[in-house]
């Protein structure tokens, strides 16, 4: 009999083994590791088990065999560490889109036709531009809803053709609503109908936030297991947001007052995450 699991938002569904397999494969786990972990998790399932518990157990098993894969498997949880203000999440998104060739700005004010707007992220390149709102949530289970999608459409209407740079491409035609969790189904339907672009951990089905992170190999420093929460906070306060920031500027780690051997450990983990990422 299949186990009924409890999701982060309190809803329930039957355990789907392929979801676990897919998440482990995406993290870079070898086929034999996937089979071993799935077999172990499946044996210990029971009705009412929480998805967080399944995740923690899978992460523990994966970490015991291969740290970089385990770190990538923890990516979704790591995004929750880009808080509590949400500003680091905006900066992370800017780094992510910059890796795709965009020039980016965060936290800017644009004058619309009827009101000023604080824009979390603006991005443009030779063939595309957009502005967007970053809805950061500090824990799973909280979804961005219809009201936020409607508000985003109203902002798009007021900002239509306002320029974010001097190039011909820079008149605003797209407003993106981006979250580190999920959207409600009504928010997705409304956005599809009115033309607001949505980006979440798993939406759209292809080229979602998870896919973009994996493809670009832009990982937040909150995935690093070799740093404490307070050490990560210190780096974020210095605008060190992604693992590549550490690799490009290793000397920044000296602000943590850690040993040279510890610095090498952190660098080795950051490099391994990126190099072994698929």
From TrEMBL:
Keyword Electron transport on entry: no
Entry-linked SUPFAM superfamilies: Restriction endonuclease-like (SSF52980)
ATP-cone domain: residues covered: 3-84
Keywords, sorted A to Z: ATP-binding, Nucleotide-binding
Organism domain of life: Bacteria
InterPro entries per UniProt: AF1548-like_C, ATP-cone_dom, Restrct_endonuc-II-like, tRNA_endonuc-like_dom_sf
Matches recorded under Pfam families: AF1548-like_C, ATP-cone
Record flagged with keyword Nucleotide-binding: yes
Protein name as it appears in the record: ATP-cone domain-containing protein
């Amino acid at each position: 009999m299949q186990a009924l699991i409890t999701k982060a938002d309190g809803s329930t569904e039957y355990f789907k083994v392929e979801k676990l397999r897919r998440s482990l494969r995406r993290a870079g786990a070898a086929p034999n590791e996937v089979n071993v972990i799935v077999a172990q998790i499946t044996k210990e399932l029971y009705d009412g088990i929480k998805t967080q518990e399944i995740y923690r157990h899978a992460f523990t098993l994966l970490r015991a065999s291969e740290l970089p894969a385990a770190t990538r498997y923890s990516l979704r949880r790591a995004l929750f560490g880009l808080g509590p203000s949400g500003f680091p999440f905006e900066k992370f998104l800017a780094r992510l889109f910059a890796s795709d060739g965009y020039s980016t700005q965060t936290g800017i004010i644009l004058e619309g036709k009827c009101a000023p707007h604080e824009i979390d992220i603006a991005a443009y390149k030779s063939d595309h531009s957009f502005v967007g709102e970053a809805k950061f949530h500090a824990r799973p289970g909280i979804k961005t809803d219809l009201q936020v999608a409607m508000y985003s459409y109203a902002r798009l209407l007021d900002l239509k053709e306002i320029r974010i740079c001097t190039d011909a491409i820079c008149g605003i035609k797209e407003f993106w609503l981006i979250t580190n969790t999920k959207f409600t189904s009504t928010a997705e339907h409304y956005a599809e109908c009115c033309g607001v672009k949505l980006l979440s951990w798993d939406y759209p089905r292809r080229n979602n936030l998870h896919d973009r992170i994996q493809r670009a190999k832009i990982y937040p420093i909150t995935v690093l297991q070799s740093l404490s929460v307070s050490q990560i906070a210190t780096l974020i306060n210095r605008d060190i947001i992604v693992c590549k920031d550490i690799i490009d500027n290793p000397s920044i780690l000296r602000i943590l007052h850690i040993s040279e051997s510890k610095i090498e450990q952190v660098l080795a983990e950051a490099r391994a995450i990126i190099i072994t990422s698929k």
